[in-house]
Amino acid sequence: MKPQTQAQTGAGSTSGIVTDFYISPFNIGFGVVVSGTVNYTVQHTFDGTNWFNHPDVASATTNQDGNYAFPVVQIRLTVNSGSGTATLTAIQAGLVGG
Q: Which terminus has fewer CB within 10 Å in the chain: N or C?
């Protein structure tokens, strides 16, 4: 997957970034850059409907990075509060399994 970026200004969620969960190893790295004042959470879904908070990047207020080592279908950024902007950039690496 090429690096993908989603930004959210004010409260709300970005569209989900669709992953390739067939790649092994799965390996997604991400970073969030904050401009202004925001409280945000990185989230993931296994089915496109039910979203779960990332265990390390939830209710964050500063630039953060993290990763997913297990397959998920999509990841997104949710701004919980604030009027600033949070920008999520994600990149997936791995070898196609045989």
A: C
